[in-house]
Each structure stands twice: as C-alpha cells, then as structure tokens.
Amino acid sequence: MESQNRSNRNLPGVIIAYFLIYVVWGSTYFFIGVALKDFPPFLLGALRFTAAGLILLGICYLRGERIFKKSLVKRSAVSGIVLLFIDMAVVMLAQQYLTSSLVAIIASSTALWILLLDVPMWRINFRNPLTITGGVIGFGGVIMLYAEQLNAEWLHPQSERGILLLIFGCISWALGTLYAKYRSSREEEVNDFAGSAWQMLFASVMFWLCAIVSGDVEEADLSTVSSTSWFSLVYLISFGSLLAYSAYVWLLKVRPAAEVGTHAYVNPFIAVLLGVFLGNERVTFIQLSGLLVILLGVMLISRKRLTGKTGNL
C-alpha cells in the first residue's frame, strides 16, 4: 500500500518513467540493429553498460548517495547479472537460430512470466480477470504482429535450441525483475539509481569476459566504425540505459511488477512503428490489428492499477 501511495503522489514521474520503458526501450531494437553492423555483440554490450554504469555511479556520488554500501553492491551484483547480462546475452545467442521476428514474439512472454512468478501478488493478480485477460490478449497481439512470418521462422533446423535459450532468458529477466523489486530494503530505496549503476557495471564485467573469450575484443577495429554506429551506441548508453533502465528499476519500487512488465508488449509495437517511419518497412492489416490488440491488453492490465483501485498493494 505504501508503494501505491508513493506512486500516486508522484504521478507525473510515473508517467514519464512509463514513457521511457515503453517508447525509448522500444526504439532500442532499431538502434541495436544499427550498432551491430559495426560492433561485435558482446563488445557492444560491454561498452554500453560500462559507460552507462560509470556515468550514473558518478552522478550518484556527486549527489551524495552511499554508493559503496556493501548490501547494495551485493544485491546489485545478483540482479545485474540475472536481469541484464543473462537476458541480453541469451537474446544475442538465440538470434543465431531465430530471426528478430520470432525473438520479439518469445521475448514478449516476459510479461506473462512476471505475472506467473510474482508469488506475493498471486492473490491479487489471479483474482483480477482484467489482469489475466490483458496478459493473454497482449501476448496474442504480439503474435499477430509477426503472424505472416511464423511459418518461415519455425522451419529453421535448430530453431528449438534458440527458442529454449530465449525462454531461459525471459525467465531470467522475470526473476531478476522480481528480485530487484522485493529484495531491496526500505533503507536502500534512496539508492535506487546507485543500484542501477552497479547492476550495469556488474553486467558489463560479464560482457567484457565474454567479449575477450569470444574474440570480439581482438577482432574489433574501432577505426572502421561508422558515425551512425557511434551515434547508436551513444543513444543506447544515454537513453536506453541511463534513462530507461533507471526508470524501470524505480518503477518496480512504486508499481506492481505485472504492470511494469507490460513494456514487453509495447516495445515490439514501438519497434514496428520505427521500422515503418525510419526503415521504410511495410505494415499489413494483420500487423495493424496486432498493434491495436496489444494496446487493448495493456489497457486491461493497467486500468484498475493506474486509478489506484487495486486493493492492498
């Protein structure tokens, strides 16, 4: 109930934070694709989270936050590795066997995994037909976005391996989300942004290790990286990590996890729109219908919560 009251008192902040995880995170699909034209995957992750983590940690230090608190660093290490590194690394590995369309469909199931694994909220979530119906409808809408490509996707001889990897990544993100929501004590809530910084830094350490082992560091030639890819990296650092990820961690403290997890439905929606306007991609009637269905699902999940009529939250 206290977290609900805090979010009601800071409604403008909640709206801005949702804009960041809905729209900005949705746009990162496009910019990651651009950056990967010149950056190897693990090196891209290492550069992105190292820069974002150090910048955010420096800001927190200048604000006088207790950035070196042992319990904060320890818990951030767990959530950073489970929430950031495993999920993103698995997505990159899965894309060896699956194209981005099927990846987007399976990744959207993260919202359902959060709903299923959020044990403390079972009593509320599973007694609320709008939450359950909205979750199913939202997932169905994402499938509609890519329905015309599904047959080709499933024909890949090793698609099962990619699907299993991606499901593992979705579960990891869901568990990391719930860990970040419930394992931080009230004393540490003032260090939300410092915690985000440490999570990114611990994820970057894992990305650097993978980049070295995989040969990404040795093979990379930064002198050949285009200005467009550098711009995309800067965008991912500033908007994708510094703003959107910090907003995500903060929202988990003040809003229900199932509601925050609806970003997994909206992100493909934004990705499709950017593909149309920036990538000159064609959108079919079925895809447009899918976009509307996604919005309906999100509205059903968020309807009672956003009005504060959610019971004992």
TrEMBL record:
- What is its subcellular localisation? Membrane
Residue ranges of domain EamA in the record:
15-146, 161-302
Query: What is this entry's stated membrane topology?
Result: Multi-pass membrane protein
Instruction: Extract the Pfam families matched here.
Output: EamA
Membrane-spanning ranges: 12-36, 42-64, 76-94, 100-117, 129-147, 162-180, 200-217, 229-251, 263-279, 285-302
For this UniProt entry, what's an example GO CC term? Answer: membrane
Coiled-coil intervals, chain numbering: none
> Which keywords does the record carry?
Membrane, Transmembrane, Transmembrane helix
User: Per its UniProt record, what InterPro entries does this chain match?
Assistant: AA-Vitamin_Transporters, EamA_dom, EmrE-like
- Its family? Belongs to the EamA transporter family.
Q: What is this protein called?
A: EamA-like transporter family
Source organism per entry reads Bacteroides caccae
